[in-house]
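yo

u said u wanted the structure for the complex thing, so here. seqs first:
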Amino acid sequence: MATHALAPATTAYRPGLYEWLTTTDHKKIGIMYVINSFLFFLIGGFFALGVRAELAQPGLQIFTDEHVYNEFFSIHATVMIFLFIIPILAGLGNYIVPLMIGAPDMAFPRVNALSFWMLPLAGLLLLSGFLTQGGAAASGWTSYPPLSEVGPTKSPGPGEDLWIVAIVLIGTSSILGGINFLVTIFKMRAPGMTLFRMPIMVWTMLVTSVLVVMATPVITSALVMLFIDRNYGGHFFDPFGGGNAVLYQNIFWFYSHPAVYVMVLPAMGIVSEVLPVFSRKPLFGYKAFIFATAGIGALGFSVWAHHMFTTGSVFLPFFSLMTFLIAVPTGVKMFNWVATIFRGKLSFSTPFIFAIGFLTMFLIGGINGAFSAAVPVDFALHDTYFVVAHLHYVLFGGSVFGVFAGLYYWFPKMSGRMLDETLGKVHFVLMFVGFNLTFFPMHMLGLQGMPRRIADYASNAGWNDWNLLASIGGFIIGISILPFIWNVFISLRNGKVAGDDPWEGNTLEWATSSPPPPYNFDRLPEIRSERPVFDARHGRLTPHDEMGPA
Amino acid sequence: MSSTPRKRLAPEAILAAVVVILLAVLVPLVVYSGAGSSLFPPTAVTTQAKGTRGLYDIVFALAIAIFVAVEGVIIWSVIRYRRRPGDNELPPQTHGNNLIEIVWTLIPTVIVLYLFAISWNTLNTVDAVSSSPDMRVHAVAAQFQWKFEYLDNNGKVIATQTEPDAAKGGGLAVPVGKNVLVTLDSPDVIHAFYVPKFLFKRDVVPGQTNRFQFTVDATEATDGHPNVFGGQCAELCGTGHRTMLFNVIAMSPGDFDTWLQALIAKNNATPPPAPSGAPAFALTAHNVAFDKTSLDVQAGQPFVIDFKNTDAGTPHDVDIRQSDKTTVVQDQPVTEGGAESTYSYNALQPGTYVFICSIHPTLMSGTLTVH
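structre next:
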């Protein structure tokens, strides 16, 4: 297998579509991950706009059948988490990790293709719930039993079963991908690429993969039990049949809290690549950053019950302490990023602007999370819109801004063309403004007592203005995607030719052509630090290296 | 700064300093003036909530300080350190500094340990349950209705409130200044008891009796002047989740005693007899469905429905609404699971209506034709 993997493209010529459908090239698979995830981003966004349209004013305007509203927010979150953020980061990692460590491909190219192809299948299964009697899953993306069990007022239809099957498939894809990343990172690094010379992006993918491999089987067990409860008369989570409803929450969050780091760590990795390049400085505190990443990964397994403070069955002081403590490594990262841009020479290209967007917004997502670590304050805020604000500042203000930083940063490498800077900045401004208009008012709504997951509210509750503002912001976010799509479309046709290294990058992907050949590298520069291409360009650490980028 | 003292300050530095100072002044100013009041929880009305509010204020102050400090450095850097066109020189290649790393690991550690200590301390007040409360209430949350039972010291039910809405003459009344122990149960799915002005919620988990205690401040109500607080289910419990509203009514102890006696009397009263000669229809609820999909009645004549609810633990009722299913024509009280009621209805104009369970409107409705 290993020798075959070294030269996958030496086989006979295959026409375009057939080549894409059968490829085992990590770059093509990575790009397909990105495209597939982006399509689901649009689908998930459609559901979000449905929710915001309904909540813009009191009264039921769109969802006369409120069950459909419950389907919308449930599928919105499921799609965004499981079919957009997690896979698009896995896809960017898929594209970039072998390049960054000087490898010709992932360790198991066919397994890699399998991991990808499970995703569109799972997505279609999930969405097909809308075609079934009773509609798609409607018990939230958390799918807590007993609501997700079978019953006339619970979840009677097959939509819930399709949800379970889809998440199990996506989990299997994640586990296969995680193992593939681990083997690739440990066994396929180029000579000289020691662990402490790996780019931070690779480190974050490494820790992410450990989390995925350790946590995903656990949620799979909960889903299988729920499936047995629903279809074969089990009572795992049925309190009136000897089961325990809160047990599901413990198992679910044992995966789903680490999953938050699966959704955030690679975005942190992207930002840690982008900030140094556009500041023309090395990342401040490279090793501290690695230890912080590992620390988040380890602590991430001891905070799950902070999602369950109000259940009355959690040992509160322990989970409160651990939740507070996990803020420390996250804070260390924030300080290191800020120290990286401090006294740099900053170029405001689109990737950098999105990375700054990440810093400013993820900071808010970190700070407003600390409120819920204080258990009594969580009693006030839990399951209100304050939590919705918090999670979107982390997953949108953090992860999504990080994803776009990565897309603008690596698009030239993937396509050989530059994206248009003006359209990129229009995209950023619209998205940044829309994002804050949408999600900042949710803090106020939550504090004033608006619970999550309600289709309607009383017109005298005092929530009208903030909701209207949030809905306007939501549609601005929707509009902000249009310049991005247009940008990709025109740049692929007429964009400026990128060249090997348009940003004066630091890491190995910039030492090969854009797009790279199927086997990735003709020659590799000498690797003596975490910035081999910088060293080759400036000759500081490797004065005798003869290889420089074109 | 690396620049020599003689060098003139760069214009970017002046601009950056102005912006950062503005941020540092304006953010606290806006937040702590009236304009920022929506960034704080509503006025706390219980002893426990006042503790939570004190904790919130400390967390909030630290949050604002950290926000201003970090965003300030980001904004400073973004404005101050732009790369000028044609500048190809590299800035100093600082790789890090171990002392700084230790300092900015320790400072947040101290802050979060402090926050943990004060929140644990507050938790011990907020979550405390006394063994001899002044009053006991058993709250039952079912899809999609609240029921409150007033208990004596032995846990025996002395009065039951099935109407959670104060506007309809119901609600959970409590005396101010007395500590109230609430036990929570659910016969179906998970719900949550949430009163924003209590700054508190607790899940209602089937198969597990949760409890908490609260004391409404003595100043919240005086004789003849009760105070109504809104509450609502906070845990997604199905299609009727948002309709699970309730009110807590704070009363002076004297008013409360009168109110409770009235509730006991109402519980004991026999329902008014059906007008003699009115036609009667039998209707049964089973597995959250009516056994009939249509009823025909005469116009201009009162009628009666003998309603039987066979769903243990699940309350139902039979209201009459316009055919849009939302406009209420005649409202009836809830019938508990396993109970029977005789509902009397006033005469109707000819037309098509629906009879509907207000708790399960999507699952339980039928056509009522008036000839």
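Chain B touches chain A through 91 residues (CB under 8 Å). Chain B has a mean pLDDT of 91.
cya
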